């Protein structure tokens, strides 16, 4: 049996303070499940665009 890795967002738990949604990770391996919340740092659109542009220049 294989291993499944799934990322998902829980839309029911939207933060009132900053309007962000929590992201979770679920791993299933040999019918054993593990799940946890991922703490993510917001990345600005400007940073993403700069990263993509620098990759394309190579």
Give structural notes.
The protein is an alpha+beta fold and 58 residues long. The chain has one domain. It contains one helix and three strands; from the N terminus they run E-E-E-H. A three-stranded antiparallel β-sheet has the order 1-2-3, with no helix packed on it. The termini are far apart.
Poorly predicted parts:
none
The main sheet orders its strands as 1-2-3
Largest sheet: 3 strands, antiparallel
Q: Radius of gyration, rounded?
A: 16 Å
Shape: flat
Percentage of residues in helical conformation: 10-25%
Oligomeric form: single chain
Overall strand count:
3
Q: What is the CA-CA span between the terminal residues? A: 40 Å
Beta-strand share of residues: 35-45%
The computed structural class is alpha+beta
What is the total number of structural domains?
1
Order of helices and strands: EEEH
Number of helices: 1
Summarize model confidence as the mean pLDDT: 84
Secondary-structure topology with pairs:
Layout: E1 3-9, E2 23-29, E3 32-38, H1 45-56
Antiparallel strand pairs: 1-2, 2-3
Organism: Flavivirga algicola
Protein name: Arm DNA-binding domain-containing protein
Task: Name a few traits of the molecule.
58 residues; 36% strand; 1 helix; three-stranded antiparallel sheet; single chain; alpha+beta; flat
Task: Summarize, please.
The protein has 58 residues and is of the alpha+beta class. The protein contains one helix and three strands, in the order E-E-E-H. Helices cover 21% and strands 36% of the residues.
């Amino acid at each position: 049996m294989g291993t499944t890795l799934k990322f998902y967002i829980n839309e029911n738990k939207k933060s009132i303070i900053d309007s962000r949604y929590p992201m979770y990770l679920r791993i299933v391996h040999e019918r054993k499940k593990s799940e946890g919340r991922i703490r993510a740092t917001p990345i600005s659109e400007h940073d993403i665009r700069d990263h993509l542009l620098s990759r394309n220049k190579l």
